[in-house]
Request: fold
Amino acid sequence: MHAYRSHTCSELTSANVGETIRLSGWVHRIRDHGGVLFIDLRDHYGITQVLCDPDSPVFKEVEKLRSEWCIRIDGNVKARDPDLVNAKIPTGEIEVFIRDMEVLGASDELPLIVFGDQEYPEETRLRYRYLDLRREVMQRNMTLRSDVVASMRRRMWEKGFREHQTPIITASSPEGARDFLVPSRLHPGKFYALPQAPQQFKQLLMVSGFDKYFQIAPCFRDEDPRADRSPTDFYQLDLEMSFVEQQDVFDVIAPVLAGVFEEFGGGRKVDAAADWAQISYRDAALWYGSDKPDLRNPIKMQDVTKHFRGSGFAIFAKILEQDGTEIRAIPAPTGGSRKFCDRMNAFAQKEGLPGMGYIFWRDQGDGMEAAGPLAKNIGPERTEAIRQQLGLDVGDAAFFLGGKAKTFEGVAGKARDVIGDELNLTDKNRFAFAWIVDFPIYERDEETGEIDFEHNPFSMPQGGMDALQGDPMEVKGFQYDLACNGYELVSGAIRNHKPEIMLKAFELAGYDEDEVKSRFGGLYTAFNYGAPPHGGCALGIDRTVMLLADEANIREVMLFPMNQRAEDLMMGAPSEPTNEQLRELRLRVLPPEE
Reply:
């Protein structure tokens, strides 16, 4: 017999009754039933009930066992009484009587309990992550993650892609976040960087003649943490293709992602990839207040500026006297009560706004009445025009925000989500995807008037060089994101592969030719040697698994994540270097500023 096990803790069934077997695992739970000890023995695969009574030669040793001790047992498989069968687990028909036992690893008193669903502070869970990972939900999440990655790889190979690994130690490159720098011992005073993404390398692969590339790529960004973002590192399905247009990229990645969500989504509805909407960046901002809209929520915001210009509602009328301002409405079907309207007004105040105007429509017996402060101020004619534009009826409401769009759009988007949730309009049993396209390449700083890149600087402008001769603020890029249920899952672009267009695009953002060649010399030089048109995208694996696992925090689907302060409490990172390390690297550490 094997030194540790003849079976796993999920394999034994009634077919094994009468056999002598060997199991190894952890003591999940102990129950003492009047001198008979029942133990749930757990390994990665499942749980088997084992028992021991005073007739067993190792009863005294078994009495000493505690939760999470790692043990080996030898025993006889017995059938459970019919009324004691546990249909919830694969081994529920049997139990094992212990004849011999060996303690493989005793456990100290536990800082967190593995059995059950007790909640523990994040600090405790991350400090003792190896215990936290023993819990059933975490084992399930990490198995899901592994299976999702395997499925992605298989699907990419089936589409004719080959996997190639790009460097982990490279040069610093602006990807929208801070780099993690690595000092060079051989070149004192110089630093490598951990790649924020394989962006430039995968483009260079296309120049090298590799037609289709992908990898499960680690990426490193020194970012502020969020629930859906790691502060240090993450993984993405990274891909690039030559001789493609935007739709070609969609046609490759969409079926892969749809297939993964159908395979692992637990029966939740997944729209066919061919039916995923393509929404311009500007329309997404107008309709949803976000470039990663949750389309499970049917609410679509509308511009109702014309109804308030010169109206009796002085606040909005005065706002509209300023250039670049507008009034936007958030329809709220079934939200037509003063109680709900007051609750949403309080929400806006918590978000830092004075409040939200609202109108709700109620039945007065002899007809419909528009109620609320706005309705009284703008009069029945304007109120009715708003109702008709929004397609609302008795029992419905609408909320209003005004000003320059960028000042209220974020709050409007949040309000839309809250309204959808509270009124049960959002379909929770669905994954809703949408491509966001036509991103602006540039933005203007309102204080300085200077122009800089708003989005990926390596994107090909729509219209090529001709587009760069006019107003930079009107230039759109062949750039796209894929949103799902309010999260950005995919980001990509058709790349700017022509050196002259690349130089002009950076010139408009204030970068001269020497700076472009200095910062992106490898890519720029390569483009002068017959670069093919190419494009691709990257899919966030951590975020994808978070959605599939129905978790609200990305740390629930990562093996060893950092905490909110980018600290590894288990390994003690970041740590102070030794004086010897600093001397070897010719570095000096300044004390922190007080």
About this structure: The two ends are 64 Å apart (CA to CA). The first helix runs from residue 59 to 63.
